[in-house]
Amino acid sequence: MPDSLLNGAYRFSVAPMMDYTDRHFRVLMRQVTRRSLLYTEMVVAQALHHSERRERLIGFDPCEHPLALQVGGDDPQLLAEAARMAAERGYDEINLNVGCPSEKVQKGRFGACLMAEPAHVARCVEAMAAAGPLPVTVKHRIGIDDRDSYGELLAFVDALAAAGCARFSVHARKAWLEGLDPKQNRTIPPLRYELVHALKHDRPQLRIELNGGLQDLQTCQQQLQQVDGVMVGRAAYDHPLRWAAVDQELFNDPSRPQASASSVVRGVIPYAERWCSSGGRLWAIARHLVQVVEGVSGARHWRRDLGQAAGERSAGPEVLERAAEQLEERGL
Ligand SMILES: Cc1cc2nc3c(=O)[nH]c(=O)nc-3n(C[C@H](O)[C@H](O)[C@H](O)COP(=O)(O)O)c2cc1C
Fold it and tell me: Whose CA is nearest to atom 18 of ligand 1?
C-alpha cells in the first residue's frame, strides 16, 4: 500500500532534475530533511536494459530513502522491466515522466508528448504496476500545446487512475512542444495552480501533488490546504537550507534540530568516505555542497576554497572536514 511504504513522504518532495538530483545531491538533501520524498534524475528505461550501465544509472546510498526512481519511456515492457529492477534495488516508488518537453525526449516519443496519448500511458502504468510491488506514480503537465483544457487533463488523470497510478505530480504549467525549449517551458507558460486545485476537488479520492514555482515553506503550507503534496525543484537546488524546517513544520516532526550549513557538510562526510574509498571523486559531491552557504559575508570565498580543494584529483573527505570547521568557527 503506497502510504505505508512511503509514510506520507510525498507531502514534500524534491523534484527530479537532470544533472542536479544525482545521488550526491540527494544525500545532501537528506541532511536537510529526513522525512520528505526524493527523486532520481530521469533515467531512460531503454538504458536500464543494458546491464553494464545500470549501477551508475540507478545506484544509490541507503541513507537516501524514501526514494523514487523516475523513468522515461513509452514501451510498456521496458517500463515494466524498470519497475521490477527498481523494486529489486530497494527503491520506494517508481515514477513515469510525462512532463519533459525536450526535443530529444520527443524524438523518443516519451515525456510530455505522451499527454496526447492517455490510453497508451495507461497501458504503461498498468504494466509497471503489474510488474512488482512498488507504487507507480506519474509526473505530468496540465496540458500540451492546444490540448490544454481542464476536461482533457481530467480525462488523462482518470485513465491513469484506472490503470493503477498511485499519485499524480502535476507541474502546473502546460508545455509547448514546438517553439519553446525545456528551460523556456519552465518559465514562460503561466502557472495555473487553480487547475491542480480543481483536480483535487473533483477527484478527492486521488493523491494529487502540486509542482511549479514554489519558493518557500509558507507557500507550501498554504498549498497543502488544497492538495496532498508539494514538490519543489529549482528552489530546493538553489537554496537547500531554505527548507531546513520542512520536517518540523510540514511533517510535524520535532525530533531533530534544524540543519545548518556546517551540519549538512559534516553529515555528508561519512557518505563521502564511502564514495571516495570506492574510487569516486570528491568533486562530484562538493559541486552541490557549495549551495549550502549563501547570503553571508565570505560565502564566495568559502565556495571558491571548497571548489578548488575538492577539484584536486587526490581530494578526499578531509577537505569537507576543513570546510565544516570553517563554517563552525563562524557559527554557520
Ligand atoms: C535542470 C532541470 C532538470 C530537470 N529534469 C527533470 C527530469 O529529469 N524529470 C522531470 O520530470 N522533470 C525535470 N525537471 C522539471 C522539474 O522536475 C520541475 O517540474 C520544474 O523545475 C518545475 O518545478 P520548480 O519550479 O519547483 O523548479 C527539471 C528541471 C530543471 C530545472
Answer: 233
Could you tell me if 240 and 282 lie in one domain?
no
**Is 60 part of a structural domain of the chain?**
yes
What CATH number has the domain bearing residue 268?
1.20.120.1460
**What integer is the mean pLDDT of 32-38?**
97
pLDDT in tens, 64-91: 999 999 999 999 999 999 999 999 999 9
Q: Is position 130 within any domain?
A: yes
Per-residue pLDDT of 225-279, as tens digits, reads: 999 999 999 999 999 999 999 999 999 998 888 999 999 999 999 999 999 999 9
Instruction: Give residue 171 CA to ligand 1 midpoint distance, Å.
Output: 9
Among positive and negative, which fits the CA dihedral 141, 35, 81, 42?
Answer: positive
The whole domain housing 295 covers: 261-329
pLDDT range class, residue 2, cuts 50, 70, 90 = very low
Mutate to test the pocket of ligand 1, among 21, 37, 139, 186 (most ligand atoms within 8 A of CB): 186
User: Do the bridges between strand 12-14 and strand 43-44 make them parallel or antiparallel, or are there none, so unpaired?
Assistant: unpaired
pLDDT digits (tens, 9 = 90+) for 193-207: 999 999 999 999 999
**Same domain for 271 and 191:** no
Beta bridge partners of residue 210, listed in sequence order:
170, 230
Catalytic positions: 100
Query: Of 46-50, 139-143, 262-266, which gets the smallest average pLDDT?
Result: 46-50
Co-location of 158 and 33 in the same domain: yes
Q: How many domains does the chain have?
A: 2
Q: Exposed (0-12), middle (13-18) or buried (19+): which is 178, by Cβ within 10 Å? A: exposed
**Residue among 140, 202, 130 at smallest CA distance from 163:** 130
* Cell numbers for 95: 515514477
**HSE-up (13 A, CA, CB side) for residue 167:** 29
Return the CATH number at 99.
3.20.20.70
Residue to probe by mutation, ligand 1, list 10, 12, 14, 18, most atoms within 8 Å of CB: 18
